[in-house]
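Whiteboard transcription, Tuesday session. T.W. wrote the structure tokens on the left side:
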């Protein structure tokens, strides 16, 4: 259903359907103008593009893709021949704020089509001096509403397998503290559940589906990435060390293996003392305090003062 979409458009819209909250969108129309310091049949020709991304990120994507993927025509072919910033004028020519992504895309489509036409239309011949652009199409990405709806359907289809993986993990472990390396096999297919969990926390993947988010909430899913790191690796490593040694005097080089993962516990201890890592979680801070963990190892008064600041803050 979505095979006609470009990779960039899929990525752009997938981010939209994956976000739970709306934000104002800044639509941008940009131009690459070929300006080499020597005569060339394409000197002065432009490429017109559109993006909702940061303009500098989109520029880097063009440059990287042109060097990685071979094209015989157009902007990427020309940049591959002349990959020098002083041979080009690259800039945003128009931009506009919108309250939703669909409106922004509709505006960008119209302006992109109009400016490509204004600059001579699609590329006709790379070996002749003509009134033309470096664009290989006349612009526009198609009907944003239809594309948006198709990607919502695609997202829900992906979610069906993901959700089964979550339910399978919860049934086996009675919690949703999923390690980054965790994989589940669902109906013969491997689901990288750890990576999906990270993307849910960092990119809000799938949280636009209310019933899925409600299920996560009901099963105590942790959306805070730092808190998840604390519960899955850091705190278990501390507890494991304490159970074995009956104290929390941990040297800087010490490491613990938790569920097959090596945790640099000594380094974490150093960061807790120097940067107060994880101490804003009061239950963890209280556990350390009860275990006689020292925030200052050489001065008892300083240690007491540090703990007073943490626990009374």
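and on the right, the sequence the group agreed on:
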């Amino acid at each position: 259903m979505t095979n006609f979409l470009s990779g960039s458009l899929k990525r752009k819209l997938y981010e939209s359907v994956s976000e739970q909250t709306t934000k104002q969108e800044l639509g941008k129309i940009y131009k690459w103008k070929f300006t080499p310091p020597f005569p060339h049949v394409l000197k002065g020709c432009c490429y017109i593009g559109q993006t909702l991304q940061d303009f500098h990120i989109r520029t880097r994507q063009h440059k990287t893709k042109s060097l990685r993927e071979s094209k015989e025509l157009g902007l990427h072919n020309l940049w591959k021949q002349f990959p020098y910033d002083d041979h080009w004028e690259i800039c945003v020519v128009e931009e506009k704020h919108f309250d939703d992504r669909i409106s922004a895309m509709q505006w960008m489509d119209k302006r992109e089509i109009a400016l490509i036409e204004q600059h001579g239309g699609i590329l006709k011949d790379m070996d002749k001096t003509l009134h033309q652009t470096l664009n290989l199409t006349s612009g526009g990405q198609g009907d944003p509403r239809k594309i948006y709806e198709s990607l919502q359907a695609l997202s829900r289809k992906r979610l069906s397998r993901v959700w089964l993986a979550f339910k399978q993990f919860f049934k086996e472990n009675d919690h949703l503290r999923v390690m980054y390396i965790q994989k589940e096999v669902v109906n013969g297919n491997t689901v990288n559940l750890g990576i999906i969990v990270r993307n849910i926390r960092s990119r809000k993947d799938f949280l636009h589906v209310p019933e899925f988010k409600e299920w996560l909430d009901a099963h105590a899913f942790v959306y805070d990435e730092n808190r998840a790191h604390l519960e899955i690796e850091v705190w278990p490593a501390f507890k494991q060390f304490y159970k074995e040694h009956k104290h929390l005097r941990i040297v800087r080089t010490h490491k613990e293996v938790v569920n097959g993962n090596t945790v640099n516990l000594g380094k974490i201890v150093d960061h807790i003392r120097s940067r107060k890592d994880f101490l804003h979680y009061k239950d963890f801070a209280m556990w350390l305090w009860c275990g006689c963990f020292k925030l200052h190892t050489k001065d008892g008064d300083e240690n007491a003062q540090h703990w007073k600041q943490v626990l009374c803050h």
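Someone added at the bottom: The two ends are 55 Å apart (CA to CA).
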